[in-house]
Amino acid sequence: MSDHHRPGPGHHHRHDSVHPDWEMLGPDLERGAELYSPLYEQAASWLREAAGGGVRRVLDIGSGPGVVSCLLARAFPDAEVVAVDATGALLERARDRAARLGLADRIQTHLAEVPDGLDALGGADLIWSSKALHHVGDQRAAVAALAGHLRPGGLLALAEGGLTPRFLPRDLGIGRPGLQSRLDAAGEEWFSQMRAALPDTVDETEDWPAFLADAGLRAPGTRSFLLDLPAPLSADARAHLVATLTRARDMYGDRLDEDDRTALARLTDPEDAAGITRRPDAFFLSAQTVHTARA
Q1: Hey, is 280 helix, strand or coil?
Q2: At what angle do helices 88-100 and 67-75 cross, to 10 degrees?
Q3: What pLDDT sits at residue 19?
């Protein structure tokens, strides 16, 4: 979904997460996407230049609560934007958001699974999909399915990959140094197991430019965008980190030792001076890679 990030701190799943409860996660998905808005605005500006004029219809595949859908509507003021997601409650959030921002007349929603439920969508001049296709077993086939909806000359943009967010000092002053690296390693193990459990999963190199080329698209391009929020963080950013660390603990805390689980409990405790809510050295640094190609 547009508003999701890699597993571990920054990714949005429950422990049973081949089929996460996206409706339950809706509020934090929206807050997380808002946190990433400066990055998404950079990406939208780049896409506007890359797409050129004539963008009249945009599809946001895996839109979640529609934060990026609304950003795309502003970046492409002459275009209709269609937010596509498999969770009705998230699309309701997208509609509410569009209404609040005065964009209700330009943002439509479409309930559909990716990629099998996309046949009724029709064509588009720009198709954006962020952090959605890694939830599909056959990622190569999913890219080809999206490419099939591009109008001649249209642009497909996939936000997949980048750098896992960093937000903790190496030595926290609690527990063993290097907690963030161990969280990352546990998250990668969890992610591999999640991928392996998906229906019709295909185990292959995640080469997104190759997937785009195999779909018959041309003029590939890749660019990464940085989100740099220095310490001290805002209250919203701290709340997002507490929520994502809590999910990390719930999803794969059993992969960590007792010392690291204790450190996580302290980091997520709003009353603990060493916790994210109170410590002055928490920051947020992340990069998102976007791969594009043209029909």
Answers
A1: coil
A2: 40
A3: 59
- What does the alpha-carbon distance between residue 232 and residue 241 come to, in Å, rounded to a whole number? 13
Whether the per-residue pLDDT at 20 is higher than 80: the answer is no
Residues 94-101: contacts with CB under 8 Å, at least 24 apart: 94/63, 94/64, 94/65, 94/66, 94/69, 95/66, 97/30, 97/65, 97/66, 97/67, 97/69, 97/70, 98/66, 98/69, 98/70, 98/73, 101/70
Cα–Cα distance, 192 to 200 (Å, whole number): 15
Q: At residue 87, what is the residue type?
A: T
**DSSP strand E in 101-245: where?**
107-111, 124-130, 150-166, 218-229
Torsion angle, CA of 180/185/191/192, rounded to 10 degrees? 170
pLDDT tens track for 167-210: 999 999 999 999 999 999 999 999 999 999 999 999 999 999 99
Cβ–Cβ < 8 Å for 43, 278: no
Q: Which helix (H) or strand (E) holds 293?
A: strand 284-294
What CA–CA distance (Å, rounded) separates 125 from 68?
17
The rounded distance, in Å, linking the Cα atoms of 141 and 157 is: 15
Residue by residue, DSSP assigns 248-264 as HHHHHGGGS-HHHHHHH
Distance separating alpha carbons of residues 118 and 110, to the nearest angstrom: 9
Inter-residue contact 132 to 1 (CB < 8 Å): yes
pTM score over 0.90: yes
Q: Which residue has the tokens 């209709």?
A: 80
Q: If residue 191 lies in a helix (H) or strand (E), which one and from where to where?
A: helix 179-197
Exposed/middle/buried for 170, CB within 10 Å: 0-12, 13-18, 19+?
Answer: exposed
Query: Are the CB atoms for 114 and 136 separated by under 8 Å?
Result: yes
Q: d(Cα 210, Cα 123) in Å, to the nearest integer?
A: 22
Domains of the chain: 22-294 (3.40.50.150)
